[in-house]
Each structure stands twice: as C-alpha cells, then as structure tokens.
Amino acid sequence: MGLKQALTDPNSDPKKRRRVGFSSIDVGVEANECIKIFLVNCKEEVGVEDSFQIDPIDLNQFFDEDGKIFGYKNLKINIFLSTISFHAYADITFESSSDGGKGITDLKPALQKILGESLVEDKEEFLQTFSAGIDYIRNVMSNGEVLHREATTGDNKSNNQLEAESFTVEHQVIRMAVNSMSVGELYCRLVPLVLLLVDGSSPIDVTDPRWEIYLAVESKSNDQGVVGAKLLGFAAVYRFYYYPESSRLRISQVLVLPPYQGKGHGHLLLKVLNSVALSENVYDVTVEEPSDYLQHVRTCVDMHRLLDFEPIKQAISSVALHLKQGNLSKKPYKLQSDPPASAVEDVRRSLKINKKQFLQCWEILIYLELDHSDSNCMENYRTLITDRTRNDILGKDTGAAEKQLIEVPNDYDHEMTFVVFCPSDNVKVENINTEAEGNQDTREEQLKQLVDERMKEITEVAQKISLKRQ
What we know:
Structural class: alpha+beta
C-alpha cells in the first residue's frame, strides 16, 4: 500500500501554503468517488489506469460516516488486484492532509476490511507476486476432482502480433473441499472480489467441511506442455444433511471474474452442479438469495431440462388449452394453473429442481405453449400472472376483511413500500380500511408494476430459450 503526498514548493510563502488546507468544515469525499479498482494480469499493467476496471457494488459500505473519507485533499486510491495470485496493492495519492473538523480517516483499516489478507503494502513485493505466483492456480487445482473438461484449439497472437502460436485451450470445472489449507487460502484471496461484486455477500467458514468450491479454470498448452492456468470463476456450495440419508446442495456464491463474464462460464458451473446433484442423488438444489442475473441464468439452464422432461408436458398443455378457450376476466371463471403435486415431486426427484424454482419456470413453460398473436389468450395469461403475483403477496385465501396490503412510510422509496397487515378479531380496522380504500389506486399501480416486471422476465427467458432450441 503506497501513500504519496504531492510535493509543494519549499520557497513558497508559508501563509499561502496554509491556505491550501481546509478553511471550513471538511465535508469529506465518498469512497465511491475516489477509489478505482483494476484487475491486472501482469506487472506491466500495475499503475496503468487503462487496465481492466471493475464496477464494485458499493465501496461506501466499508467506511464509517456514511461512506465518507475525511482529511485529504484530492485523494485518489487505485487498487490493483492480480488475476495471477489474487494479491492486491493500493496506490494512494493526495495533495495534502489536515484535520478539517472530522479528523483524518485512517485508510489502512478500511482497505484491509475490503482486501483482507490479499493486501500487499509494498509495491515491489506486489510486483514480484506475478512471477512468484505464476503457477499458483495450477498448483491449487492439482489435487482437485475434475468434473468436466472440454478442449478446443485456437490461435493466440504474440505481444507483437506478428506471429501466431497454436495452442490447446481446455476448460475445466474442478471440485475441492474448502477446509484444505491451500483451497482455504485461495478462497480468502477471492473474498475481496466476493465482497466487491456479490451484493449482500459475506465470507464462508473455510473450516467447515461441508463447504465445497467448484473452480472454473482455463488451461493453455502447446507442444512444450502447459503454458498456464487461470481462474475464470467459482461457485461455493454448502451440503446440508437431509433426513434420513440424503443431502441438499445450497449454492451460496457464484462469481465469474468480470473479464470472463458473458461467455458461458456461469452457465457451465450451474450445469455441472446439476449433474453432481443427479449423480449423487441429493434431495434438491437451492440458491441462496440469487441476484437477478444469476436467477436469469439459472432459469435458462432449468428451462432446457424441463422442456425435455416428458412427465410434465400433458399438464402444461392442459393449462395452455384452458387459457386459449376460457375467459379469466370473468369473476366466476377459475383456472387451476399450478402444476399438479405429482409433477412437482417428479421434477424434484428426477431433475433436483426445488418447488419454488419449478413454479418460476412453470409460468414460462405455459407461455411457450401459447399463441402470442391471440389477444384473448394473452389477456388470460396476464390475468393468470396477476393473480399469482397477488397471491404471492397476500396469500391464496385472502378475504376482504382478512389480509390487507397497506402502504407505509419509508426513508428509501416511499412509493414502493407496503406491508401485509392481518388484523385479529378484536382489533378495530375502520381507519385501516378507510386508508386502504383511499390507496386502492396506488396498490393497483404497484401490482401492475410487479406484473409488468414479471412479464418482461418471462418474455426475455422465453425468447432466449426459443432461439437456442431452433
């Protein structure tokens, strides 16, 4: 971690130099505004600001005082993370430092909170890690279990781009227990990326033997042997005991390094995890608080499997037929749109997809069966999604005097805030009912927004699946 203060003219007037300091209360600078984070592949990229820059979720959370840093003028922090050994170095520069009423923020503890054991304070020592750690990933994965491998041949241009070298690229997925020393150390070095890129994440317990890590790795080899190996991403999975003699796989963290995102590596990790669940006959697979994008990828993976699963096809066709022929806008008309309990169990037992995920996919399976040019059919489908969304919020057996959707104040987003209120028999609800009636339009608009979002998710997945299966 290097700290550099800009030099001032020693012959300048001391009084003028004092004016450079803070003349009023220091308002500070947000961490998000003065910190940049770069992923670097070699020592030549360290200190170069056109290296690959990542977009972290929120750096302010690692600093006190509402994420602000105090006591520095023109503070600039560039953090360089090595993709070779996953060590980190922070280059810190500022013009001057002074207590402007809020003290001077100690940057070292805050940066250690982000970077942990990965932080190397001396720049020269950090630069040496690129050569010393050139085989780090290959050494760590050498004791792992290879679950998947596929090789392709490509052309790699040299730095001067004058000649091409033929090599073999092999993508592997390797399973390892996190509680081994070398794997635990690797995960600890990956924690900064987890904290910076996975919203709401926290480090796993590397001493717990039930944690497993699945590494997506790319190795390159030519006629002389392996040129190198690099980590593309990973998934951290916890194996829960399920009575009496089974287990459940919970996917806790999935992270593909930003330079390699959008190339199918996360998709591959999920497919391999599904294969593990089937081969080891676990009870089911769940995902802990998935991001919107991870949920999207997961749904796409599961949709392909469900579309080829014969036992549920008749039930899907039955719902689709009723949507084509019926009219859900009429009050007496009711459609049993949920999958039969037998289908839910068949999917869990044969595909290891849990019920909650299956219900998400079920709506898309129905959508794919419909004639999208039939306005009546699509109006029925939207009514179905609206009813299901309302039921998810209020429950399926909601009466007029039972659960109520009540708008409440909120410091973050007042318009989108509501709670479900269940009055007991001895509670007076006249005022609540009056307010509920007054806010009916607001609640309906909120419901409409939720339905619009869900319809967008459904159509995006359906279009992607349809293109893949053409």
